[in-house]
Amino acid sequence: MGNDDIEILSRENCFRGFYRLDRIKLRHRQFSGDMGPSITRELFVRHDAVCVLPYDPQRDEVVLIEQFRVGAMDKSANPWLLELVAGLIDKDEEPEEVARREAVEEADLILGPLWPITRYFPSPGGSDEFVHLFLGRCDSSAAGGVHGLAEEGEDIRVHVMPLADALAAVRDGRIDNAASIIALQWLALNRDEVRGMWS
């Protein structure tokens, strides 16, 4: 099945700010082959995102950032999350350009080669966001400090961790956001190949 198997009956914009919320009434073809009944869904419309895990293959260290996240505020005892460097594609840029720009803005890091990990929908039941996930080669020896764009209210602390410690943080739940978990687990599976190519 594909987009030809969807019939949009109406689409209403309910909210427009930095993000957008649309209410869509539609029908779609069911697995029986028949068109299903009319259903209504709200869709959170947002820019696609780029996330990058800076990795130093010489030291076997990753660079993570820590910042306040409003989405975790009501469901976590600590809404300051350990995450990947990340940003939105909100102008005419390629995902790789966003990865490099955000690494400078959020962690004061210049990235070397980028290794595409995957692309995915983090929450397709209600959002059209699409994430481009990369590994970025870096020199972690001088990484640290607090960074971010003041005009965007960013207050971002940089952490350098041995890969083993970051994986332990995934295991014990200290790292609890999807992009970071996916990237770190991917690196755990592909570490020998990455180090062989980048060392």
The overall strand count is 11
The major pleated sheet works out as: 8 strands, mixed
CATH architecture classification name of the largest domain: Alpha-Beta Complex
At CATH level 3, the topology of the largest domain is Nucleoside Triphosphate Pyrophosphohydrolase
Please tell me the total number of domains.
2
Helix percentage: 10-25%
Shape from CA axes?
A: globular
CATH secondary-structure class of the largest domain: Alpha Beta
Stretches with pLDDT under 50, minimum 5 residues: none
Q: Compute the gyration radius: what is it?
A: 19 Å
CATH superfamily of the largest domain: Nucleoside Triphosphate Pyrophosphohydrolase
GO molecular function: ADP-ribose diphosphatase activity; ADP-sugar diphosphatase activity; metal ion binding
Pfam families: NUDIX
Binding site for Mg(2+): 86, 102, 106, 154
Organism: Ectopseudomonas guguanensis
Overview of the molecule:
The structure is a single chain. This protein has 199 residues and is of the alpha+beta class. The protein folds into two domains: 3-45, no CATH class; 49-198, Nucleoside Triphosphate Pyrophosphohydrolase. Helix content is 22%, strand content 37%. It has three helices and eleven strands. The chain has helices at residues 95-107, 163-171, 178-198, and strands at 6-16, 20-28, 39-45, 49-56, 61-68, 80-83, 85-88, 114-120, 131-137, 146-147, 156-162. The strands form two sheets. Strands 4, 5, 6, 7, 8, 9, 10 and 11 form an eight-stranded mixed beta sheet that branches. Strands 1-2-3 form a three-stranded antiparallel beta sheet, with no helix packed on it. Strand 1 and strand 2 form a beta hairpin. The longest helix is centred in the C-terminal third of the chain and has 21 residues, at 178-198. The termini are far apart. One of its GO terms (molecular function) is ADP-sugar diphosphatase activity. Its cofactor is Mg(2+). It catalyses: ADP-D-ribose + H2O = D-ribose 5-phosphate + AMP + 2 H(+). Acts on ADP-mannose and ADP-glucose as well as ADP-ribose. Prevents glycogen biosynthesis. The reaction catalyzed by this enzyme is a limiting step of the gluconeogenic process.
